[in-house]
Amino acid sequence: MLKIFKIILFSFFVLCINAQSIDKVEAIIGDEIVLSSDIESQYIQYLAQGNIKSSKVRCEIIEDILFQKLLVNQAKIDSVVVNDEDIYSEINKRLNYFESQLGSLEKVEEYFGKSKADIEIELARIIKEQFLAQKVQSSISSDIKINPVEVRDFFADYKDDIPLVPAKVELLQIVVRPVISEQEKNSLIDKLNGFRTRV
Hints:
The chain is mainly alpha-helical. It has eight helices and two strands. It has a two-stranded antiparallel sheet.
């Protein structure tokens, strides 16, 4: 049984060493997930517009994506629909913009490291989410008629009654502690003592 466990443990470590990260879930909002590739593609689009690299901008992109995913999740709850023709029109506008900036479609494909079809699929997903978020945001704020003085007065009056919403974090971790035999410990101690003697 111990031999089988060691073989499985060794196989697991070999897989971990040789594994490559394909994509990573950075956040989950309702049913919506934020992937590392989403953040990177938005950042690449930002750079493609001629802007300079900045870690502050990357943080703003992450914040925008999280807010957008929150609105998209609400759009799904509210059954908001987006017109496909609007999405395809926006895809063409963006591809034309990228072509005008980079010179040709081949250079756009080279820059993003994807074919035109793959770029269109990714843009369709992003644009659909943006349109859904815009519709939800406009539906929320369309009937609101309030000025900053009223907001300040409201919070002054109800400051003690507004509950604090605690942060919710879920952490999962797999811990495997290898068993080290006395023989391996003694071997290591002898090796370290040999280093000390040489020094």
